[in-house]
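name: query_chain
kind: protein
chains: 1
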Amino acid sequence: MEKEQPTSEQTTDEPADESRRKFLKKGALATGAVALGVSGSNTAGAQQVQQDVLTYFDDYQPGQTVQVVEQLPANITVTLLQLPNGNTVPEIGQPDDYNGYVIRPATGQGNRSWGATYLFTRASIPTGNQYQFGPTATVFSSQLSLVSTSFSRQGGGGGG
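structure:
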């Protein structure tokens, strides 16, 4: 068998890096799409509820416990999930499909540099409850600086 010779594009670092970025972006998009699609089937109950959510790169800390403070108005959620020029990113074609929430570190979590930030999901999340970020995250949208991670309800909080 004869080996194929690399093309001139394949022998330079730049196209390989670009190809790698495209591959990683598509992988993150597929992971995020599957994760967010699954999150829509979760319902609140007495058991621990886990779903996938989006948050900002700088605000994600593995295992961080946060409190969901308030749901954002739909128009603010849409604005936050668009580029500054109002265009959408490929990963989020319909920003109005998402719910946005204000979150803050749970009491006693200490030394976090942020007082409050935002979280996005296609599911509904009851406010006032504590949740914990998962141990890993994947890049969901580099343009919006968002990662996708699991989000598990912590503690009691009623019947079901």
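note: Strands lie at 50-56, 65-71, 99-105, 117-121, 130-141, 146-153.
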